[in-house]
Amino acid sequence: MQMLKHLFGLVARGIQDISAYRALARKLRPAITIEVADEADKDWVNRALAAPGEIRPYVPDPLVTDFVAKHGRTILGYVQLVHYPPQSGPYVGHWLFSLYIWPLYRGMGIGQDLCRRVMAQAHQEQARELFLLVYQDARPARALYRKLGFEDTIIPGLAEILEGDTTGRRRLAMRKVLP
Fold it and tell me: I need a surface site. Which of 52, 60, 63, 124 has the fewest CB within 10 A?
């Protein structure tokens, strides 16, 4: 069963990379709303994304604003805006974190909508720029961020941490100057 699930995932990702699929999916996608996540949303996302045996209660953080994309009461995607104070280096300022779209809904423009909501909130909070980290091999994510105006950047102090990352996947920092 696990092998079949993995195979389906590979096929679905391949189809979702085709531009004709993406154009059609955007037109046919369900009506969605982007909203600030309430406690029930945060708890559901926390449970859905946790590895087996790693579920911990969600702990509210005043520096984090969580957003969800919903169709009715169904959560289709999730993202965070984190505002790190100057003393929290190397992460300083406004950061887009944890963008996740459930696989069935990828390619529909939901990630773009969630990112735009984070960008609008950061602008509302007087941020001059917004940062994010993305895996170097995550081509669709990097393409989305570039489409939204993010550019690769080097952040002193963070670059050294990312170079020493032992996950086996290299992460890159990106930055967008906000209007």
Answer: 52
